[in-house]
Amino acid sequence: MILEGGLIFFVSVVGVLGQIPSPSAPLSNFSYISGKGNVLLAIDRTGIVNRLDNGAWVALPEPTPLVNDGDVGSAKAVSVGASPDGWHHLCTLTGQTYRFNPTSNAWEFSNSGRCLQVNAMSKNTAVEIQRPSALDSNDGDIRKYNGAGLIPTWTLVAGSNQRVFQYSKWVSIGEDGEIWTISRKGNVFRYNGASNNFDGIPILSAIALDVRNATYATVVTAGCNAWTFKSGTWTKWAISTCPVQTTSTSSNDYYLDEHGRFGSRH
C-alpha cells in the first residue's frame, strides 16, 4: 500500500488494485507516526495529530497551550503515542505533555514540561525522553507516566540515567509494558525489570524504533533499512523507499519515509 498525492493506493505485483477517498491530512506531509492495537496516528507538518478512521485521516483538535507556554504555536505536537484505549499521549514543541480524552474529544495536560519524545501504552501509562532543565543538564532520562493518582506523575525508569543513556534518541513501550530505547550512539536496549537495568539488543546504528510487545518490535537503522524483531529473529524489510520511522498495529507494520510519505509494509 502506497499513500501519495492525496490518495491511498493498494499496490501488488499486478498493479493498482483500488483506492479510498482522500484523507483530511496531506499524505506526503507527515512528520511522525505511532500505532498501537488497532489505532494508528500521524502528525502532519503543521503539528496536528491525525487518526486513521475507516481508511480516512481525521484531524484531532489541537491542545490548548498553557499560559507559560508562550504563543499558540507552542502547542503543536512533535511526538505522539497511540493508545489502544483512545487515551493517546503527545509531546509539544515546548516539552509539555497531554493525554487525549476520547469522551470529551480534548487533550488534557499531563504534568510534564521536559518532553522530547513520547510513547504510550494506555490511559495511565506512557514513557518519555526528557530534555535538560536549568537544574539538570542530563538529557535523555526516561520517565514513566502514572496517571492513576490524583496528580499525574512522571517517574525515572531505574537505570535510564546512566551515562550511556544520556542524550537517548528514542523510547517505546509495548502493550505489555516492554520498554526499549536507543542510546545516543544508536545502540538498542530493552528494560529488564528483574535487574532494574537495561540489556543490550544486537542491532547497531538505530535511528527509531517501535515496540508492540516483548516478542515483536520494528527498528529503523542507518542506510535506509527497516527491520522486524519477532521472537528473537531479525527480518529486513523489502521496501523501495528510505524509512525514517516505523510503527505497528495488531495487524500490520507501517513506515514514514524521508519525504514524509506514509505506507504499510504489506
Question: How would you describe what is shown here?
Answer:
This protein has 266 residues and is mostly beta strands. It has one domain: Methylamine Dehydrogenase, Chain H (7 Propeller). The protein is 0% helix and 50% strand. It has a four-stranded antiparallel sheet with strand order 4-5-6-7, with no helix packed on it. The protein has a four-stranded antiparallel sheet with strand order 8-9-10-11, with no helix packed on it. It has a four-stranded antiparallel sheet with strand order 12-13-14-15, with no helix packed on it. Strand 8 (77-81) and strand 9 form a beta hairpin. It starts with a strand and ends with a strand. Mean pLDDT is 83; it is low at 1-26.
Number of domains: 1
- H/E series, N to C? EEEEEEEEEEEEEEEEEEEEEEEEEE
Strand fraction equals over 45%
Averaged pLDDT:
83
- Total number of β-strand segments? 26
What would CATH call the class?
Answer: Mainly Beta
Overall geometric form: globular
Helical coverage, percent range: under 10%
**Biggest β-sheet: count, sense, barrel?**
4 strands, antiparallel
- Which strand order spans the largest sheet, edge to edge or round the barrel? 4-5-6-7
The CATH homologous superfamily is called YVTN repeat-like/Quinoprotein amine dehydrogenase
Gyration radius from CA atoms, angstroms = 18 Å
Helices and strands: which structural class?
mainly beta
